[in-house]
Design goal:
binds adenosine monophosphate, 2 domains, Rossmann fold, 401 residues, alpha/beta, six-stranded parallel β-sheet
Length: 401
């Protein structure tokens, strides 16, 4: 497999799939350019070595037709600023004759941004049209680089199909995907023990395949968040009005039995912060996890649980975290998630490798200014979960042999 580090882009026209799906405010200004910054290392390597960079991305969820609010022209000024004031040329359609002409006349050292890929159904929905669409994207380019990890689990024209039009030594991952894969492989294939996985969030059903795949690898499995209550109910506990997936009770017991058979220690919360309604201003009451008072619902892990979880995390050498421990969006129910974020930072300082993924866990890490205190923060929640499930992601498979 061609590695970006070993490649010389001098004289090459390089089409790069980036993830510029950034949030915009009412004036169409970029409010968080983390994703743009994430692509800079790859873009700068191409430009610094004397190549030309043609950038393609999606933005938002347009209905397979041009929509002003989803135009990638809104990111031009931010991108230009991040590239040190460099001019960013823009093609107002990603596959038109004019766009192809602009690619062909682009000079080395220049940057061209193509309009939103998802203005065409052939990017993501129209499977029949994907190949012809991808070929037009590839037209006029010598090299393909995929650096959009967030969409690597999608078999889209620009993330997978386009790779068919480039020889093995002319397609590669960018630095962002490389780093993501290294971080995940570090956890999955070379984890130092004890290895602890922390799974949270609303539903067991979303994380079931991940949990099952992790049972073969981890020493400890910490469960928190709303999914806790499906386990607690399955074990015969009283859960009041807490979140529960009634049709997953058997599955919850099955997971616990499998964990036991494989020697994985499962840590379920032992106490909870309950609320009398799902509201930031709700009254709260602490209880044992399996004694939720009637009419109340558990919205965060309790103090005893926080202590136990902290201890397990602190003593781990590898930690993977996905999903909040409670309704962390509300201040009253954020303590559990914050404590896990801090425990990860502590474990990292003690020499552990710590990987955080999923929008909510990442936002908890950022809110507590801990992004540089953990080993790696993943940019693609869904893609990370599917990789950890053991799936062969289309965007990865298209390049990695
Ligand atoms: P997920 O998308 O499955 O990772 O779930 C994330 C969401 O789960 C967040 O918006 C949390 O507010 C929510 N959540 C976490 N714990 C609970 C809980 N105990 N009850 C209800 N919702 C929860």
């Amino acid at each position: 497999m061609q590695l970006i580090d070993n490649f010389n882009f001098s004289g090459k026209k390089v089409i790069v799939r980036v993830d510029f799906n950034v949030p915009l405010n009412a004036n169409f200004e970029v409010t968080d350019d983390t994703r743009i910054k994430g692509a800079l290392k790859t873009i700068n390597k191409i430009l610094d070595q004397g190549g030309a960079a043609i950038l393609m991305s999606h933005l938002g969820r347009p209905k397979s037709a041009p929509e002003e609010k989803y135009s990638l022209k809104h990111v031009i000024s931010n991108l230009s600023k991040n590239l040190g004031g460099k001019e960013v040329k823009f093609a107002d359609d990603c596959i038109s004759d004019k766009a192809i002409e602009m690619k062909k006349s682009l000079k080395m050292g220049e940057v061209l941004l193509l309009e939103n890929l998802r203005f065409y159904a052939a990017e993501d929905k129209d499977k029949e049209g994907m190949k012809a669409f991808a070929q037009k994207l590839a037209d006029g380019c010598d090299v393909y680089v995929n650096d959009a990890f967030g969409t690597a689990h999608r078999a889209h024209a620009s993330t997978a199909i386009i790779a068919e039009f480039f020889a093995d030594n002319a397609k590669m991952f960018g630095y962002l995907i490389n780093d993501e894969l290294n971080a995940m492989d570090n956890v999955l294939l070379q984890s130092k023990k004890p290895f602890t996985a922390i799974m949270g969030g609303a539903k067991v059903s979303d994380k079931i395949l991940v949990i099952e795949n992790l049972l073969d690898r981890v020493d400890n499995l910490i469960i928190g968040g709303g999914m806790t209550y499906t386990f607690i109910k399955a074990l015969g506990g009283k859960i009041g009005n807490s979140l529960c997936e009634e049709d997953k009770l058997d599955l919850a017991l099955e997971i616990l039995n499998k964990a036991k058979a494989k020697g994985v220690k499962v840590y379920l919360p032992t106490d909870a912060v309950n609320a009398d309604k799902f509201d930031a201003a709700a009254n709260t009451k602490l209880s044992k996890i399996d004694e939720t008072p009637d009419g109340w619902m558990g919205l965060d892990i309790g103090t005893e649980t926080i202590k136990t979880f902290n201890e397990v995390i602190k003593n781990s050498k590898t930690v993977l975290w996905n999903g909040p421990m409670g309704v962390f969006e509300m201040e009253k129910f954020a303590a559990g998630t914050t404590s896990v974020a801090k425990a990860l930072a502590l474990a990292t300082a003690n020499g552990a490798f710590t990987l955080v993924g999923g929008g909510d866990s990442v936002s908890a890490i950022n809110k507590n200014n801990l992004a540089d205190k953990v080993s790696y923060v993943s940019t693609g929640g869904g893609a990370m979960l599917e990789y950890i499930e053991g799936k062969n992601l289309p965007g990865i498979k298209a390049i990695r042999k």
